[in-house]
Task: structure prediction
Amino acid sequence: MSKVRVLVGTRKGAFVLTSDGKREKWDVSGPHFAGWEIYHLKGSPADPDRLYASQSSGWFGQQIQRSKDGGATWEPVGNKFVYDGVPGTHQWYDGTPHPWEFKRVWHLEPSLSDPDKVYAGVEDAALFESTDAGQTWNELSELRGHGTGPQWTPGAGGMCLHTIVIDPSNPRRMYIAISAAGAFRTDDAGKSWRPINHGLHSQHIPDPDAEVGHCVHRIAMHGSRPGTLFMQKHWDVMRSDNAGDSWQEVSGNLPTDFGFVIDVHAHEPETIYVVPIKSDSEHFPMDGKLSVYRSRSGGNQWEALTKGLPQKDCYVNVLRDAMAVDSLEKCGVYFGTTGGQVYASADSGDNWAPIVHDLPPVLSVEVQTLA
Amino acid sequence: MIRVILPAHLRTLGRVGSEVTLEVKAFTIGGVLDALEERYPTLQGAIRDHVTLRRRPFVRYFACEQDLSHEPLDFPLPGPVVSGAEPFLIVGAIAGGC
Result:
């Protein structure tokens, strides 16, 4: 029988939640790495028992943990993230040049085909690759070096490379996103990169054609349509049908188009999910009502999904890496909150229930569908 | 043999007990850290930067009721630490946060 494993990164450890295909009863394992911030953990599509976790602490820095048994046991692997060559400078908040300084790994993206290959998106923004299961890391420095790097500026959460999307039809093509530089694409496995931000408009950028400077929060893709991308920008929900060459706004009737997460239904490539957040100065749902919004038309027409979600006095946030879907016949949708809840829907978002109520603030949610 | 006491998170990370004993090549702060990281490679980068070898800001070194955090890596260990009568303490600084 099918099984689902939900990997949850929190401010104070990692948790592994498991259920059978009914997704009604859940076992909770954790905290793993208790007391450490777990920005992200994710499993290899090629070997679901191979997991990678980013573990960090203001005291003791960055660690990478690897599991070979689905999260039952872990071993620390390489944590040496050194920028290639002379790191150079990016733009600081006050406009002055500021040297690149490694702070932490925000996102780990295992290869689609090789369990030993994994990418790491880090703060200050850069992309690293390991081909030996996390033991050693090398920067794909052409991203920072392609030309716009000195213009990149941090967002409020730091200058983080937080999104890595690999094209399943062409593993040489990959998309990444940086707050607050924007989205970038490589078509040659990281040897060269270019900004893909045409059509994005941000109020703080006077130049409507600015190549970089956009605060992209998250990008999602459906594997069957790798040329179509969906983006939750700081403000605005966007889509591209040409691999990011141009973007159109699809915020439509959303009550607010600020937010962090965005994801695509496992079987319906035009069904997408966001969690609208009131504003960039009020990081909680509108009117204290936690709602997922679903569009079955690839954007513009949105419906609120509220059954089972708190509709009163709810002032949590849902961070950029904290939504995921499973691939069971009835697609499951999951998200975690800064209030420590992980909500699950086993029917594409029509009905929701919390798996857990009281975890530390949730930073990331990933889902594995196991045979 | 030098006795070293680690903070709780580093004991977990290094999979060691409350106290570690080390043979060092040099009776200095750097000598202790080199021996510790050689024997427990998972601690590399957790106490000091991989490249610059600078102490992480919220890690402190103490011995014999002295704060040695700001001393250079070639600073000699106090006699009681060399003799094994007193431990060398690596401490997570008392700092706030969430």
